[in-house]
Write a structure and sequence with these properties.
Elements lengths: L13 H28 L2 E4 L11 E4 L3 E4 L5 E6 L4 E4 L10 E9 L8 E8 L7 E8 L4 E10 L2 E6 L5 E2 L4 E8 L2 E6 L2 E7 L10 E4 L10 E10 L4
Antiparallel strand pairs: 1-16, 2-5, 3-4, 4-16, 5-15, 6-12, 6-16, 7-8, 7-15, 8-9, 9-10, 9-11, 12-13, 13-14
């Protein structure tokens, strides 16, 4: 307790001593609270650069995804759009009342074979009630648009706007956030879709699949370089 230690005055000036000690204790507690708050807001980032141990969790390999070197020198995992995926046995947003999930990825021109692609899926399949999906849709003009999906036992919501398209073959980010009954979908940091709904937290028993829906369909054709989770929306 070095922050508040001080020799007690011997000359009777005890009121000033108590005031200083109380102020120092208040500062100590305030800083501790701020530090705790910062720790709960800290992002959990998975560099998708390996086929095992993503985020420190057991990771099951589906098919034959491969590690590639990207243009900026950072590795990523390439999925073939046929039978490649990764199943991570962990849920970084477990129990969160609000959340943010962001994926950095590069889709391949794969229309019409992979027109609908679910490339991030969070769910406990044994429960089958609460899930989050980040998806994309391709068109016949070498473009894609974002599709976000949230479901629980009391309802579901889809965020999609086919008029907001982006070119395939380029790195991009998709981010889904939920806070104060507002579900919002972003592409490259720009808000594209939003809706109002309630949210029920996904349990710690859920897993995260990358490159495919957990029931092994709607395969992703492209590369994923990073996934970032937060239990607070900034």
């Amino acid at each position: 307790m070095g922050l508040i230690s001080e020799n007690k005055p011997q000359n009777g000036n005890s009121n000033l001593y108590r005031l200083k000690t109380r102020n120092q204790l208040f500062l100590f507690l305030t800083l501790g609270t701020l530090a705790l708050g910062c720790s709960t807001m800290k992002a959990v980032t998975w560099p998708v650069n390996a086929l095992s141990g993503l985020g420190g969790y057991v990771t099951d390999v589906i098919g034959s995804p491969t590690i590639i070197q990207t243009e900026n020198g950072k590795p990523a995992v390439q999925f073939d759009g046929a039978d490649d995926g990764l199943l991570v046995q962990g849920n970084p947003i477990a129990g969160a009342q609000e959340f943010s999930i962001e994926v950095e990825f590069k889709p391949t021109a794969a229309w019409p074979a992979n027109k609908e692609q679910r490339f991030l899926h969070i769910e406990d399949l044994t429960e089958g009630k609460r899930r989050v999906l980040l998806e994309l849709r391709l068109n016949n003009r070498n473009q894609w648009y974002a599709d976000f999906f949230l479901r629980h036992e009391n309802g579901s919501k889809v965020l999609i706007d086919s008029t907001k398209t982006h070119p395939v073959g380029e790195w991009a980010t998709m981010k889904l956030t939920y806070k104060d009954r507002q579900l919002k979908g972003y592409v490259n940091g720009i808000l594209e879709t939003q809706a109002e709904m309630d949210y029920l937290p996904i349990p710690a028993t859920a897993s995260v699949s990358l490159g495919t829906r957990m029931d092994k369909r709607s395969w992703f054709n492209g590369a994923i370089r990073r996934v970032t989770f937060r239990k607070k929306v900034e």
